[in-house]
Amino acid sequence: MDYFLTNTDDISDCDDQSDKSTSNNNHAKNHTQKSVLGENTGRSSRRKQSAPRSRLVRQCDECDFTSSMTSEFKTHMKFEHGHDQVFLCDLCRYYSLSSFDYQLHLNSHQ
Predict the structure, then answer these.
(1) Are 76 and 60 in contact (CB under 8 A)?
(2) Which residues of the chain have pLDDT under 50?
(3) DSSP readout, 35-78?
(4) Beta carbons within 10 angstroms of residue 74's beta carbon
(5) pLDDT of res. 8
(6) Are 38 and 62 found together in one domain?
(7) How far apart are CA 17 and CA 39, in angstroms?
(8) Domain limits at 25?
(9) Residue 92 belongs to a domain with what CATH number?
(10) pTM to 2 decimals?
(11) How far apart are alpha carbons 105 and 49 in whole angstroms?
């Protein structure tokens, strides 16, 4: 079951026209409780809920360097091996020095 809190915009847009100054806290709790219980609140979040990303450990093909940080891996490739552009897949451990090969790889995820 997914647990998430509702966006505050959802509460302010609610059709309930009760006195919001005195009952807003209880009303907000109602929306939150429905969301936690997996019930439909009648409102969808305007913000995209991003899934937690796992740390992808990348292994350099030219040496024994590994890193789970994108910027660190790109810096390594640039300064240790002279590759100015490295294309890293966000979905798996794949990387390429060629944008064409990288695009072909991205198509394989579809």
Answers:
(1) yes
(2) 1-12, 20-22, 31-38, 45-52
(3) HHTT---S---SS--PPPPPP--EE-SSSS-EES-HHHHHHHHH
(4) 19
(5) 41
(6) no
(7) 21
(8) 1-49
(9) 3.30.160
(10) 0.48
(11) 25
